[in-house]
From TrEMBL:
Residues 1-16 form the signal peptide. Keywords: Signal. Pfam families: Cytochrom_C_2. Coiled coil: none annotated. This is Cytochrome c.
Amino acid sequence: MLVAALLTLAAALAPAAAGGAAGTLIEARQASMKEMAAAAKAIVEMFDGKRAYDAPGFKAAAKTLSARTGPALIAEFPAGTLGAPSGAKPEIDQARPEFEALARHIGRLAEALAAKAENAPPAINRDMRMGAMLPMDGGSLLGKRPGAAQADPAGMPAEHLLHLILQDCSSCHSKFRQKVE
């Protein structure tokens, strides 16, 4: 399911048909998004057993996510580069605080993932796995637990961090990305 979401993301990032500085920024932003999608896909495939796990590859992919999120992600969406021909909805400007909070949250999660990858073991171990009782968003059958979303990412397993990053990416795309033809 996660791989399918990543492939959908990558397919949606077709090159922009814009000119000038805005077009260059849009193309750079799309390239950045493709790099993030490829990095996330690599890690997902390692955890799913569809790709051989290798600690240096995990570290490189996690570093890519960390470098391209947070303030770097916010900087890629300045006013004047939103709306057609970009896939970024102009609503980003109307909801700028929400967009930036989401980008910063993804950044904190990606930083924690990169820190864990820095000392990655030679094989995926139990400490890296999400575990059966760890909900992806702090939810339960009774709803979200108070304060669950504010948990310290440094204490979360790498697989859980990845799932939270992908959740945030999906949330951002559903609110702030439009299909461009």
